[in-house]
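We were asked to recover a plausible sequence for a given structure. The inputs and outputs are reproduced exactly as logged, with field labels preserved.

PROBLEM: sequence recovery
POSITIONS: 184
GIVEN STRUCTURE:
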């Protein structure tokens, strides 16, 4: 009798295990809510990688230009310091104020350029989101889902409702690096 019970119990456990594995392997069909990691979708897509590379190059160029300007300003400041020895306080004051205005202007221009880089990043992300919408909508239709939530706002979810990787694959196939949809 115990052997029959053990066999029945073992068969029952195997059936439960098989149904759990089957549930884990089920495609997304029937999931009414999907989740996505939008930051990962952007950064791992060809589009996001192109934007990151472009911004990194622009930022590096700006840093090099800043260093060159800083060197030139340091040299100009040293020349001004040398001139001070041969000038009256009033004459030096005029030159020092002009130099200060110049330095502030250059700093303001460079700060504006860094802000422009951040704005460019935000614009590119906006273009990406707009271009991704039809692809995400298609995923929703295919799965019968009614809604896609940001993964970080979800406390607990099954990995089977996470469409991030599938979205990346489809975005890469559809948009490539995004240059065709990006606005200058």
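RECOVERED SEQUENCE:
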């Amino acid at each position: 009798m115990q052997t029959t019970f053990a066999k029945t119990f073992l068969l029952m456990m195997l059936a439960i295990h098989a149904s759990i594995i089957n549930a884990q392997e089920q495609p997304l069909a029937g999931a009414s809510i999907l989740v996505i990691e939008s930051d990962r979708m952007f950064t791992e897509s060809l589009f996001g990688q192109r934007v990151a590379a472009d911004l990194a190059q622009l930022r590096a160029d700006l840093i090099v230009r800043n260093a060159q300007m800083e060197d030139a300003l340091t040299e100009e400041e040293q020349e001004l310091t040398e001139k001070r020895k041969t000038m009256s306080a009033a004459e030096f004051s005029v030159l020092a104020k002009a130099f200060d205005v110049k330095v502030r202007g250059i700093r303001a221009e460079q700060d504006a350029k860094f802000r422009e880089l951040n704005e460019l990043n935000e614009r590119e992300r906006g273009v990406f989101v707009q271009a991704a919408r039809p692809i995400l909508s298609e995923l929703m239709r295919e799965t019968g889902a009614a809604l896609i939530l940001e993964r970080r706002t979800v406390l607990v979810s099954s990995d089977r409702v996470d469409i991030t990787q599938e979205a990346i694959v489809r975005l890469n196939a559809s948009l490539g690096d995004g240059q065709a949809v990006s606005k200058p």
